[in-house]
C-alpha cells in the first residue's frame, strides 16, 4: 500500500469520549512508529475532568482506512502456533455456558470463533473490514457495531480483543453491547493498559491507530456510566504472543530527555554518543523491567476486563 499523501489524512479535534469535557493537558507527542505511514506527530492528551487519555487531533473515520495496510491483518490464523496459544488463552476467560451465544467484535476472519464454535458456542462476528480468510459456518457482518442491527438481549457473551482502543467512540460500543447482552451476560474485552510502562512511558501505544488509552480507573467510570457491574480486571502480558512489556522505557525516556529525534530512537543511529546512551539504557531496561514484575505491580501492558449486565 503506498504512503498516503498529506491531504488524505484529515485530522479532527475532539472532546473526551467518557465525560465530553474539553479541559485537557498534553502528555506527549509521537509519530506513527509502527507502520510509519504518515510522519507528523500526534498528540496524546488527558482529560483533566475524568482522567481519560486519547489522541486529539486525530484521524477522521474516513482517513483511518489509510492507516491499516494489508500487512496489518496478516498472520492471524489459528494455524500459527503463537496465535493458537493466544486463542486458547482467550478461551479461558469465557464462562461455562451450555449452547451460549457469543459475538466477537473485531473478529477478522473468525479464526478464534472457529475454536469457540468447536467448544459448543453459537458464534457471530463483526469487523470493520472484510477479511480474505473468512471461516466457514461463522456469520460475520462488516461495519461499526453501533450501526449494525442485532436483536436486543440476544448474546450471553460479547468479546473484543484489542478493539476498543481503535474505535472513534467507545462510549457507543459500551452502550450498544449493554443493550445486546442478555441479563447476567458478560462483556469481556482486552485493551492496552494506559497506566502501564509500555503505554505511558515507553511510548509503545500504536498511535494513531490506538485512539484511546484506557486506564483501570476510567474503565470503571465507563462501566458505571452505562450500567455494568465491574466484575474483574486481569493485569496480563500473556495473551499476545509478544508480551506488551515496558522494556525500552528507560532508553526512550533518556534519549527523549536529550532531545534525540524519533527517527534516531527507533532506527540504529550512527552517532557514537547516541549508540552509547542507547546501549547503557538498554542494559538497565533488561535488568530492571520484566513482564512478571510489571504484572505484579499492575503496570502490565494489557488488561482483560469482565463486565456483567447484572451482579
Q: How would you explain this protein's 3D organization?
A:
- The protein is α/β, with parallel strands linked by helices and 311 residues long.
- It has 3 domains: 65 residues, no CATH class; 166 residues, Vaccinia Virus protein VP39 (Rossmann fold, 3-Layer(aba) Sandwich); 40 residues, no CATH class.
- Helix content is 28%, strand content 23%.
- The protein has 10 helices and 13 strands.
- The strands form 3 sheets. Strands 8-7-6-9-10-13-12 form a 7-stranded mixed sheet, with helices on both faces.
Question: Summary?
Answer:
By secondary structure, the protein is α/β, with parallel strands linked by helices. It is 28% helix and 23% strand. The mean pLDDT is 90.
Keywords:
single chain, 311 residues, alpha/beta, Rossmann fold, 7-stranded mixed β-sheet, 4-stranded antiparallel β-sheet, 10 helices, 13 strands
Number of strands: 13
Second CATH tier, the architecture of the largest domain: 3-Layer(aba) Sandwich
Biggest β-sheet: strands ordered side by side in the sheet: 8-7-6-9-10-13-12
* Overall average residue pLDDT: 90
Strand content: 15-25%
Which blocks of ≥5 consecutive residues have pLDDT under 50?
none
| Number of domains as seen in the coordinates | 3
What is the name of the CATH topology of the largest domain? Rossmann fold
Amino acid at each position: 500500500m503506498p504512503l498516503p499523501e498529506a491531504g488524505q489524512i484529515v485530522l479532527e479535534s475532539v472532546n473526551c469520549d467518557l465525560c465530553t469535557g474539553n479541559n485537557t493537558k498534553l502528555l506527549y507527542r509521537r509519530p506513527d512508529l509502527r507502520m510509519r505511514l504518515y510522519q507528523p506527530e500526534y498528540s496524546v492528551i488527558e482529560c483533566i475532568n475524568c482522567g481519560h487519555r486519547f489522541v486529539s487531533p486525530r484521524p477522521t473515520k474516513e482517513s483511518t482506512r489509510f492507516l491499516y495496510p494489508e500487512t496489518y491483518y496478516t498472520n492471524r490464523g489459528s494455524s500459527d502456533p503463537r496465535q493458537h496459544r493466544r486463542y486458547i488463552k482467550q478461551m479461558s476467560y469465557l464462562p461455562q455456558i451450555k449452547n451460549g451465544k457469543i459475538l466477537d467484535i473485531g473478529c477478522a476472519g473468525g479464526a478464534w470463533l472457529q475454536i469457540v464454535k468447536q467448544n459448543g458456542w453459537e458464534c457471530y462476528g463483526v469487523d470493520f473490514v472484510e477479511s480474505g480468510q473468512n471461516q466457514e459456518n461463522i456469520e460475520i457482518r462488516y461495519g461499526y457495531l453501533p450501526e449494525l442491527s442485532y436483536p436486543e438481549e440476544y448474546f450471553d457473551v460479547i468479546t473484543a480483543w484489542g478493539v476498543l482502543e481503535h474505535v472513534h467512540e467507545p462510549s457507543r460500543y459500551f452502550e450498544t453491547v449493554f443493550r445486546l447482552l442478555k441479563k447476567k451476560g458478560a462483556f469481556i474485552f482486552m485493551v492496552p493498559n494506559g497506566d502501564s510502562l509500555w503505554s505511558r512511558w515507553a511510548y509503545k501505544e500504536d498511535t494513531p491507530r490506538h485512539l484511546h488509552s484506557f486506564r483501570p480507573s476510567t474503565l470503571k467510570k465507563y462501566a458505571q456510566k452505562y450500567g455494568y457491574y465491574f466484575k474483574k480486571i486481569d493485569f496480563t502480558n500473556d495473551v499476545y504472543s509478544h508480551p506488551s512489556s515496558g522494556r525500552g522505557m528507560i532508553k526512550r525516556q533518556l534519549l527523549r530527555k536529550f532531545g534525540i529525534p524519533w527517527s534516531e530512537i527507533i532506527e540504529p543511529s550512527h552517532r557514537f554518543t547516541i549508540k552509547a546512551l542507547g546501549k547503557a539504557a538498554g542494559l538497565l531496561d533488561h535488568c530492571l523491567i520484566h513482564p512478571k514484575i510489571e504484572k505484579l505491580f499492575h503496570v502490565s501492558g494489557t488488561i482483560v476486563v469482565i463486565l456483567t449486565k447484572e451482579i
